[in-house]
Amino acid sequence: MIKHILFDCDGVLIDTEIVAAEVVTDWLNSENVAIDIEEFIRDYTGKTFTDIINILKKKGSLSPDLDLSLVVPELDSEIRDNQRPIDGVWEMLDSLNTARSVVSNSAKDYVELALEKLKITHHFEGRIYSAEMVAKGKPDPGVYLLALEKLSVTRDEVLVVEDSVAGVVASKAAGLKTIGYLGGSHVRQGHGDQLLMAGVDALVQDHVALTHYLSEY
Predict the structure, then answer these.
(1) What CATH code would you report for 4-15+84-214?
(2) pLDDT grade, residue 216 (50/70/90)?
């Protein structure tokens, strides 16, 4: 029996994955990294900015001396200013009778601000689990394992809604049934196939379809 639903934030509740792709791609271009939005979406959606920058440092695309403590807050700030809901999110959340939490690679204060802007804070009652609370972000399962521990629920009692390959890899590594959400504006052709390859249990196209799926629990 499903007792709790764990929602990713970006790309599921708020439509910021495309904003993040635009902002970070522009910044990387300014640092002489040759990358476009489509490549960023394909290779980096769902990963933390810290992980993305460290990956590019290891590749030699960014200076190893780049100060993450300066760059990441600037990127976060620009994206926060452009947060917007995904169509149908209010109706979907209002339809639920099951307890729910947010499990995100984004910073906790970022998620809190997003929920406040969307006026959906009350749906989660402070239950926000962020990658900054664990050693590694998604695709590592740590943040999902933390949520299970804090919520005192078993794997069989949880359902996850994720939009990224990194998120699905993390949730499945934690042993959780996972729904792949395809309603974000960053989703491109073939993304559903990528989520299926990552192990997702089912796919939904938008919040109307997600509402119908979740009504069975």
Answers:
(1) 3.40.50.1000
(2) confident
